[in-house]
């Protein structure tokens, strides 16, 4: 299983965001994870489509845009036009989840559904045939630098079993509190796309920490 590292720019220096994205690209990141927050669905406000559009000009990496917002349908087209390659919406925020997923795919983008730590996997059971990825939050969304919620590991295992039993090809992304000490337990459980923010952006040697995350993801 190929492990992909998706640094979250929520932990980057916003005064030089373009340079930060270039830094992780040169350091071996596989995706750019963009946390979009509206101050309603989660208690924080971050960035919108214009920033994604600007950053897309400086990086060739796929942009993994995580919409932690109310009424995501209102903004999906704007983020798609801005350059998002993967768009994640929260099951908790969508009244008509299947319709929202189809809207993303009709725009030519990969569709993902995100679940908060306390949300059951039942919330995605009837859309798994239509998504490219499921994003499991391993912290309560809104802020970076939180501690990994250990109970999410079992949730990853259960999701992986469901996907395998149905013969589906779906990425499992996990976001929150993952570092070099616990990444192996997360990937061993079945995740293959790892979001990491403060661990990467606070490191003195970005390439080294990304390499360590990848190495540790395959070994005890």
UniProtKB/TrEMBL annotation:
Pathway: Carbohydrate degradation
Binding-site list for a divalent metal cation: 33, 35, 66, 175
Family: Belongs to the ribulose-phosphate 3-epimerase family.
Pfam families to which the protein is assigned, alphabetical: Ribul_P_3_epim
Protein name per Swiss-Prot or TrEMBL: Ribulose-phosphate 3-epimerase
GO molecular function: D-ribulose-phosphate 3-epimerase activity; metal ion binding
Active site: 35 (proton acceptor), 175 (proton donor)
Keywords, in A-Z order: Carbohydrate metabolism, Cobalt, Isomerase, Manganese, Metal-binding, Zinc
Gene name in the database record: rpe
HAMAP family: RPE (MF_02227)
Cofactor section: a divalent metal cation; Fe(2+); Co(2+); Mn(2+)
Keyword Signal among UniProt keywords: no
Organism of origin: Acetivibrio mesophilus
């Amino acid at each position: 299983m190929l492990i992909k590292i998706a640094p979250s720019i929520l932990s980057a220096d916003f005064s030089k965001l373009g340079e930060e994205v270039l830094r992780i690209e040169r350091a071996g990141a596989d995706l750019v994870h963009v946390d979009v927050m509206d101050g309603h669905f989660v208690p924080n406000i971050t960035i919108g489509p214009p920033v994604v559009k600007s950053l897309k000009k400086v990086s060739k990496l796929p942009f993994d845009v995580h919409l932690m917002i109310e009424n995501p349908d209102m903004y999906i087209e704007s983020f798609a036009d801005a350059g998002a390659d993967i768009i994640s919406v929260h099951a908790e925020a969508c009244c008509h989840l299947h319709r929202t997923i189809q809207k993303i795919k009709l725009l030519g983008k990969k569709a993902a559904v995100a679940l908060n730590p306390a949300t059951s996997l039942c919330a995605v059971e009837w859309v798994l045939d239509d998504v490219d990825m499921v994003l499991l939050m391993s912290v309560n969304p809104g802020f970076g630098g939180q501690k990994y919620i250990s109970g999410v590991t079992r949730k990853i295992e259960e999701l992986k079993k469901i996907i395998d039993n149905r013969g589906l090809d779906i990425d499992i992304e996990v976001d929150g509190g993952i570092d070099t000490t616990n990444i192996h337990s997360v990937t061993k459980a079945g995740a293959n796309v790892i979001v990491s923010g403060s661990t990467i952006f606070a490191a003195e040697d970005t390439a080294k920490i990304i390499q360590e995350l990848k190495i540790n993801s395959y070994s005890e």
